[in-house]
Design brief:
Blueprint: H1 9-12, H2 35-44, E1 59-60, H3 72-78, H4 89-102, E2 106-110, H5 113-124, E3 130-133, H6 138-146, E4 150-153, H7 174-184, E5 192-195, H8 208-221, E6 225-228, H9 232-242, H10 251-260, E7 264-268, E8 279-283, H11 286-299, H12 310-323, H13 326-345, E9 358-362, H14 363-366, H15 376-388, E10 390-391, E11 393-395, H16 397-400, E12 416-420, H17 428-443, E13 451-455, E14 466-469
Parallel strand pairs: 1-10, 3-4, 5-6, 6-7
Antiparallel strand pairs: 2-8, 7-8, 9-12, 11-12, 13-14
Helix pairs in contact: 2-15, 3-12, 4-12, 5-6, 5-11, 9-10, 13-17, 15-17
Bound molecules: pyridoxal-5'-phosphate (PLP).
Pyridoxal-5'-phosphate binds next to helix 5 and helix 6.
């Protein structure tokens, strides 16, 4: 079994210390506007952090999507863009990076993750078919529903309890999946939609043992498995850390093995792959590739650029290789954990164990006096912004939206406010400031009341909904 070459000081001397495997070459100034200006800004934004101007934000933890700092090599790659309409050399670099890193032979580029979700959903789902998955994701489920599919959550129960310390809360409950197969028949299941890590569950991983068992079950039933690989590199870190057989195995090797148990993957390259825009779909089967490769020209662009420029594809090809560097992954997850450990010590309620890309504050426990219909997680995001200009995001009732059949609000068990950490962007001092702000808002929680929604868009309402304070 290959082992990781010890490179960081901590690794070489057997110490627990770690540091980022890079130094800063270019900086972007940020500043905090006054409390009065923040009050005005959030009012004008309809109490929705997505509607704030970034100039009014101090530390931006809205998302880890497209917010990474690129390396000097990636910036150099931008200068090597081949902007030919068809057959750009950068596409072939990208294709080869995906094939060698993830192991799927057929690649379709897309402008970002939801472009790939659209293609796979349209290619594989017949109206009325079921798509079991390990918890929903907003855009993924919407594309499955728009293709006529019905998403069914088959994640383990522990995932719905923020305090449960299960080390692999992203795992599929095989009994739930088997029960669905018995109920609807394997032919009515389009595919299993597996995500590693699980964003809506708190960045929680899937174990290698679980994906192997899932593969066995699906092989018996003739069902394919498609992977949302958006944060699979972080998932692999947790496998390396928590599954004995993988201790010391490089992230790149773990990733290859995990993907080998699936039939293909879609990717929002704006996360793990360290670029500001981009995505891809990659599959094992020629028939699925042929469908997706034809659909991409309708919705995204020619099959050798799929909505990206040549230079974007070059930066992405380089980002894919950087993303599986063990020192990088470790420092990325440890930074998230640093913030989470500070807040845990201070008694702030959050999803445990701490996930890969973000801290997910448990807004129900934070504000037990605010009922879910008054949007505690949205309220908490507003309060954090007012306190320090810190931008976070709701991941609860607003994000869950309405059931397309009944039109009723879906009230998820998890009502969370997410502090997502961009990759290679903020320092430990920024994390200290964030922790202090969360603590200050927690200390004054009794004085806070909820919000009411005054504008509700039909699709993915969390992006554009508007709110007003209740009092
Ligand atoms: C798990 C997961 N899948 C898919 C997507 C969609 O990707 P994109 O935003 O690039 O369209 C996201 C984006 O946040 C995500 O977190």
């Amino acid at each position: 079994m290959a082992s990781i070459k010890p490179r960081t000081m901590g690794q070489q001397f057997g110490r627990r210390s770690w540091a980022e495997p890079w130094k800063i070459k270019m900086v972007e100034p940020i500043h905090m506007i006054s409390r009065g200006e923040r009050e005005q800004a959030i009012r004008e934004a309809g109490y929705n952090t997505f509607l704030l101007s970034s100039a009014d934000v101090y530390i931006d933890l809205l998302t880890d999507s497209g917010t990474s700092a690129m390396s000097d090599r990636q910036w150099a790659g931008l200068m090597m863009g081949d902007e030919s309409y068809a057959g750009s050399r950068n596409f072939y670099h990208l294709e080869s990076a995906i094939v060698s890193t993830y192991g799927y032979p057929f690649v379709v580029p897309t402008h970002q993750g939801r472009g790939a979700e659209h293609l796979i959903s349209q290619a594989l789902i017949e109206p009325g078919q079921y798509i079991p998955g390990n918890m929903y994701f907003t855009t993924t489920r919407l594309h499955q529903e728009l293709a006529g599919g019905i998403f069914v959550d088959v994640i383990i129960d522990e995932a719905h309890n923020p305090a449960d310390p299960h080390p692999f809360k992203g795992n599929v409950d095989l009994n739930k999946l088997e029960a669905l197969i018995v109920r609807v028949g394997a032919d009515n299941i389009a595919y299993v939609s597996l995500a590693g890590t699980v964003n809506m569950g708190g960045g929680q991983p899937v174990s290698m043992a679980n994906v192997k068992e899932l593969r066995n079950l699906c092989d018996q039933q003739g069902i394919r498995i498609y992977l949302d690989a958006t944060r699979m590199v972080e998932n692999c870190f947790f496998i390396q850390e928590r599954e004995k057989a993988y201790a010391g195995v490089p992230i790149a090797t773990i990733l290859q093995e995990f993907c080998s148990y699936t039939d293909g993957a879609w990717m929002s390259a704006k996360k793990d792959n360290l670029v500001n825009i981009g995505g891809w779909l990659a599959v094992n089967h020629q028939d699925v590739f042929d469908l997706a490769c034809n659909l991409v020209v309708v919705y995204e662009g020619l099959h050798t650029y799929g909505g990206m420029s040549g230079r974007d594809m070059e930066a992405l090809a380089i980002g894919i290789k950087e993303a599986v560097d063990d020192d990088h992954v470790r420092s990325r997850v440890e930074q998230v954990r640093y913030l989470g450990c500070l807040l845990t010590e201070w008694g702030v309620p959050m999803v445990q164990p701490i996930g890969g890309h973000a801290i997910f504050l448990d807004a129900r426990t934070f504000y037990p006096h605010i009922p879910q219909e008054h949007f505690p997680a949205q309220t908490l995001a507003t309060e954090l912004y007012l306190d320090s200009g810190l931008r976070s995001m709701e991941r609860g009732n607003v994000s869950a939206g309405r059931d397309p059949e009944t039109g009723r609000n879906r009230y998820p068990a998890l009502e969370l406010t997410r502090l997502a950490i961009p990759r290679r962007v903020y320092t430990q001092a920024h994390m200290d400031v964030v922790a202090e702000s969360v603590k200050a808002v927690y200390d004054s929680r009794q004085d806070t009341s909820g919000l009411k929604m005054v504008h509700e868009p039909k699709y993915l309402r969390f992006f554009q909904a508007r709110f007003e304070p209740l009092v």
